[in-house]
Each structure stands twice: as structure tokens, then as C-alpha cells.
Design brief:
CATH architecture of the largest domain: 3-Layer(aba) Sandwich
Radius of gyration: 25 Å
Number of helices: 24
Shape: globular
Helix content: 25-40%
CATH topology of the largest domain: Rossmann fold
Distance between the termini: 41 Å
CATH superfamily of the largest domain: Glycogen Phosphorylase B
Strand content: 5-15%
Length: 653
């Protein structure tokens, strides 16, 4: 059943507090506690009811409440101060500006703008445009770039239903729902022409069809994020659904999504520069092959508008393109029939000077072990990029082996795919209690930029432990709320749920496990010996407790069965106070989960974890990792900062 779209009307704020609208529309609030505190001070109850969403909070205030706020001189002063702080954040010189001057002094030019393409971005739970690690990484990348002053422009798609919301039925089976998002009710603004009409990006499709898209902008601190939306007038029903859901639809929809992201994304950047005066990007960074067609569009521009030959354009595009591969699993790479690609770039859609045969060759698996007649998006991405990297040292090794066919005659170690280990955006993931204890005992929360780390031993052990307990207690409270809500959706009555008040204990060692649920991540490995696990959970003197979360792709029946197996174990009345499965793993849940866990568990099949960053977030909050030596942990484990689980590469348990 198709959901009915809801329309939101933006709140008109009194002039004295109109700065609240500016603060709400810049997603810096999602990692800036003082701004969040300002919105919460309006009404703590409504702040929680609005899901800690400033735009939604303001929309729920009555005219009388807004007038009362505008008459409060102290509150008005706070709004002015917060806007002044945001202005300084947006305009003051930061690391990149200083570095750029150094480059200029050395006779080198720093890029004035860098385009960063990703099929998903996880900025905040308020804007659910992500499914897992790639999206969270992309969101952290934009936030970190903003803090550093790096002139990035993000490019993605706006998915009307996001990924999906997960719940459980009575039998513990995953149920997906797809609430429709109204962009007018989100911290987004529509890119418009000078006459006020929506700016439109158009792509030619086979059989004379057109794919039109509007462009929404999310402001992520200093970084604009452009999101293309195909649900616009002028599109037929099929093309309106192109951006309906993340990683949804069949092969044609997936291909059209990637055409819109790559080709449409470049055209959106051109619109952005024309309408705002922003510099044209000099570097293009694509994550996975999803946006690979951006290279095709840039070749087309150079051939059509600048008179270059195809080969000249190809070299120019390669010189300014970076490709990051994020998966060591071949099944995670998008591959299409070459004949289908020919439909989009040949015949009536052929581009003068850009032969379709040359385009098909970019994605051809024309190497030993490749499949004829297949167009491989990752292969195209690598052939269009001057620089390529994996996302951890081990993943770099794996990637060089996966793609060595593109460089015949090279030993794997010589294949030009480097590695840059992923990181996380600390202000998003470090609990404010950690910052509080740093300020109290070290005089600053800027650990990296001062000598505070050298004085870390000055923090009393009891202060560290009490802070960890505080975070664990918040996790327990959040978990109980989520367990109760989940059981109510599964059909339980309030009278049946008295036991939920005793779920988890803030004074018991807490182990966390949360991630997507493909089979290689081995969610149920801990159930291999159920009696032993039960004994650990129920130990009379030293019990442990487990908090588990994760989504399976809607089409992955095997992953859903793994979730059901875990849920059925956790439903056992004997252990349900010591182990919980929390549905709908998202950013909001994670911001309680990482700080509240003492140990972070990760047991994938090695070497199928490209990097994994959840353990980094737990570590930043004082958690220890218990993990297979895979991804980032393979290079960061030092024998003292956690535990390594022995493994045999690729062996099924």
C-alpha cells in the first residue's frame, strides 16, 4: 500500500527569535551540545517528544509559546549568542585555510572545492538517509571536513522512505515498514532558480523518457550536502520511484539510481555553482562504484564543451578523481548486464565523441576470472580514478588481490590501491559525560589539541569508573524503554511486561554487539554453545549482560533467520533480564549504546570486515574491544587495549 504523503508548513518565528530557524537548519546542532541544550530548554518534554529534532520541535510550539519565548530577554540573548557562535564557526579560519596558505607559499595550489559522492549519508537520526557503515562514515566525513574547514560538497540522493524501520513480530521475525518522509518537515532547503522555481536536473533515459530531479540541500556545519529527489512533477510513476528507498527496487531502479547519483550529481554541482557562485570542484571523490557514472558525465563535458578527444578527457578526469572501495566481498559490488548499459548510452542516447564501446570498456571484466558481458561499477570506478584506496591496511591487501586483474603483470603488492583506515567524528560519538570529566580534571575537553593527553593519569580512577557507570545507566534506561516498546508492538499487554523494569543492570559488565546482519558478521556465533552463554549471563558472582542490535536487508532471508534465532534466545524468561535485542538500530540508539558498553564484541569472518568503526566509537567512550583481527582492529590491537579472538581466515564456524 502506497503511503500518503504529508505536507509540513515551516513555523514562522517572531523576529526576536528568528535565529532559532537558522540554528535548526544547520545540522551542526547534531554534534554541538550547547545548541542542543538551547532547544531542549524551550521544553524538555516536547524536545523528547519531537525526537530531539529542532525543526519538529519548533513546528509543535503554539503562537502563544513562541510569543512567550520572544518576550523572554534572557532566552533571546541565548539565541543571539548561539547564532554568533555559529557565525564564527562558519566564517573563522580553520585548519584547511591555514594549510592552504602554506601550500600557496610553497608554490602549490590547494583545491577550492572537493566533491564527495556517496549513495548514503548518516548525519543524524532526524535525516534517515543511511543503512550502515558506509553512510555513517560518509556523515562523519562531512562533519570532520566541516570542523577542519575542508571545502567539501557532499552529493547523494534523497530517499523518500529512507532505508526502513525495523520491528519484530510475535515470533521474533524482522518486519520492515517504510514511513514516507516529508522534506519540508526536515532540515532541508530546496535549490531554486532566481525566479523562485525549483532547480531541475534532467537525465535522458531509453525510449525517449526523462528522469527529472529536484535538489535538496542539507547544511552540515560548513559543508553543503546536495540530495537529488526524483519524486517530482513531470516524471512518470516509475521514475518518481527511483529515489523512493535506499538500495531498493530491482535492477533497472538500481541502475537509474546510480545514473542519477553520478550523472545527475555532477549536474547538481553545476547548478549549485551557477546559483550560489560556489567554486567548481577540482577533485571528485567517489565511495564505491555507486557514483561511478560521474566520470562519464565529466568526460562528456570535456568532449562536448571543451573540444577534448575521448582519451584526453579520460586522462583529465582520472587526474582529478579519487575512488574508495569499501567492501572485500565481491557480492557487495554492483554489476549490470553490459547490454543494459548500452541502452542508456548507445542508440538515440549516444553522445557525440563519447563512443558507447569506450564507455562499456571502462566497466568490462575483461581479465582472467572476469565474466564477459558484465559491466562492473567498481571496475569502472578504479579505471576512472588516479588514486584508489581501501579502508584499512588489511582491506588494502584484500583489495589489491581482488582487483589485480586490472593490472596484468603486476604482483599484488604493486597494484596501485593504497589504504587509508577509516576514522570517526569524535564530537558525534563521545558522550558528553566524558567531556565533562575531562574539563573537570584536565581543564579542557580538547584532548588532541593540548597537552591534556600527557596528563591523563591525573584523572582519578573513581571519576573514570563513576562516569562509565553513568553512561551504562543511561543505556539501561534506553534499552528498557526500547524493549517495552518492542514487546508492545509484538502484541504484549502492559500487564505482561512488568519484568521489563528489571532488564539489564547498570552495575553488571555490559557487552555490546550491533551492526548490519549479513551472514559473514556471524551474529549468532555466540549461540554456538547456548548452555555456556547462559552460564556466563547468569553467573552468581560475575554475571555479564549483552545488548544486541542490527538490521538485515529486506531481501536477505538468511539474515532475518539469524535475527529470529537471536531474538528467541533473548526471549527466554530465564535470561531475558541479561540479554536484549533492540530493534531498529540507528544513530539515536548508537549514541547510548557505544558509551554504555564496557566491551565491544565483533566476530566477522576474516577478512570480510573492510574496516568497521563501531569499535572505535566504543573505545572513545572507554570501552574495550573483543574482536577478530579484522578491519581496523587488525592494525590497532596492541595486546593491551582489548582482546583478539583467534581465527582462521574465511573458515565457516
Amino acid at each position: 500500500m502506497k503511503a500518503i504523503r504529508r505536507f509540513s508548513v515551516r513555523t514562522v518565528l517572531p523576529s526576536r527569535i528568528e535565529g532559532l530557524g537558522v540554528l535548526a537548519s544547520n545540522l551542526r546542532w547534531s554534534w554541538h551540545p550547547p545548541t542542543r541544550d538551547l532547544f531542549e530548554s524551550i521544553s524538555p518534554r516536547k524536545w523528547v517528544e519531537a525526537g530531539e529534532d529542532p525543526v519538529k520541535l519548533l513546528s509543535r510550539l503554539s503562537a502563544d509559546e513562541l510569543a512567550e519565548l520572544a518576550a523572554d530577554d534572557e532566552f533571546v540573548s541565548s539565541v543571539v549568542a548561539a547564532n554568533d557562535d555559529l557565525h564564527h564557526y562558519l566564517t573563522d579560519e580553520r585548519w584547511y585555510q591555514s594549510w592552504s596558505r602554506e601550500q600557496e607559499s610553497a608554490g602549490k595550489a590547494a583545491p577550492a572545492a572537493i566533491a564527495y559522492f556517496s549513495p548514503e549519508f548518516g548525519i543524524t537520526a532526524v535525516l534517515p538517509q543511511y543503512s550502515g557503515g558506509l553512510g555513517i562514515l560518509a556523515g562523519d566525513h562531512l562533519k570532520s571536513a566541516s570542523d577542519l574547514g575542508v571545502p567539501i560538497v557532499g552529493v547523494g540522493l534523497f530517499y523518500k522512505t529512507g532505508y526502513f524501520k525495523q520491528s519484530l513480530n510475535r515470533d521474533g521475525w524482522q518486519v520492515e515498514t517504510y514511513p514516507v518522509l516529508d522534506p519540508d518537515g526536515l532540515p532541508l532547503s530546496l535549490l531554486r532558480e532566481e525566479d523562485g522555481t525549483p532547480a531541475v536536473v534532467t537525465i535522458d533515459l531509453p525510449a525517449g523518457r526523462l528522469l527529472n530531479a529536484h535538489v535538496w540541500k542539507a547544511q552540515v556545519g560548513r559543508v553543503p550536502l546536495l540530495l537529488l529527489d526524483s519524486d517530482v512533477p513531470g516524471n512518470d510513476e516509475q521514475t518518481r520511484k527511483v529515489t523512493e528507498s535506499l538500495y531498493g527496487g530491482g535492477g533497472d531502479t538500481r541502475l537509474e539510481q546510480e545514473l542519477l547519483l553520478g550523472i545527475g550529481g555532477v549536474r547538481a554541482l553545476r547548478l549549485w555553482s551557477r546559483l550560489t557562485g560556489a567554486p567548481t570542484p577540482e577533485v571528485y571523490h567517489t565511495n564505491e562504484g555507486h557514483a561511478g557514472f560521474l566520470g562519464v558525465e565529466r568526460i562528456t563535458e570535456l568532449v562536448r564543451d571543451h573540444g577534448l578527444t575521448f582519451d584526453e578527457a579520460l586522462e583529465a578526469v582520472r587526474a582529478a578523481t579519487v575512488f574508495t572501495t569499501h567492501t572485500p566481498v565481491p557480492a557487495g559490488i554492483d554489476r549490470f548486464d553490459a547490454a543494459k548499459i548500452n541502452l542508456f548510452f548507445g542508440g538515440a542516447n549516444a553522445i557525440d565523441g563519447v563512443p558507447v564501446e569506450r564507455l562499456l570498456a571502462l566497466g568490462a571484466e575483461d581479465y582472467e576470472g572476469g565474466q564477459p558481458g558484465i559491466f562492473n561499477m567498481a571496475v569502472m570506478g578504479l579505471r576512472l580514478a588516479q588514486r584508489a584506496n581501501g579502508v584499512s591496511q588489511l582491506h588494502g591487501v584484500v583489495s589489491r588481490g581482488m582487483f589485480d586483474g586490472l593490472w596484468p603483470g603486476f604482483d599484488d603488492v604493486e597494484v596501485p590501491i593504497s589504504s587509508i583506515t577509516n576514522g570517526v567524528h569524535a564530537p558525534t560519538w563521545v558522550d558528553r559525560a566524558v567531556y565533562d570529566v575531562a574539563r573537570k580534571h584536565l581543564g579542557t575537553d580538547d584532548i588532541a589539541g593540548t597537552d591534556a593527553w600527557d596528563r591523563i593519569d591525573e584523572v582519578p580512577a573513581d571519576a573514570v569508573w563513576s562516569t562509565k557507570r553513568e553512561m551504562r545507566e543511561k543505556l539501561v534506561s534506553d534499552a528498557r524503554r526500547r524493549v517495552r516498546s518492542s514487546w508492545q508492538k509484538r502484541g504484549a499487554t502492559d500487564a505482561e511486561l512488568g519484568w521489563v523494569d528489571d532488564v539489564l543492570d547498570p552495575d553488571v559488565l555490559t557487552i555490546g554487539f550491533a551492526r548490519r546482519v549479513p551472514t559473514y558478521k556471524r551474529l549468532t556465533l555466540m549461540l554456538r554453545d547456548p548452555a555456556r552463554l547462559k552460564a556466563l549471563l547468569l553467573h552468581p558472582e560475575r554475571p555479564v549482560q549483552l545488548v544486541i542490535a542490527g538490521k538485515s536487508h529486506p531481501a536477505d532471508e538468511t539474515g532475518k533467520r539469524l535475527i529470529q534465532e537471536m531474538v528467541r534466545f533473548a526471549d527466554d524468561p530465564e535470561v531475558r533480564h541479561r540479554i536484549v535485542f533492540l530493534p531498529n538500530y540507528d544513530i539515536a540508539m548508537a549514541q547510548h549504546l557505544y558509551p554504555g558498553c564496557d566491551v565491544w564484541l565483533n566476530n566477522p569472518l576474516r577478512p570480510f570486515e573492510a574496516c568497521g568503526t563501531s569499535g572505535m566509537k566504543a573505545a572513545l567512550n572507554g570501552g574495550l574491544n573483543l574482536s577478530i583481527l579484522d578491519g581496523w582492529w587488525d592494525e590497532w590491537f596492541d595486546g593491551r587495549n582489548g582482546w583478539a579472538i583467534p581465527t582462521a581466515d574465511g573458515v565457516e564456524d
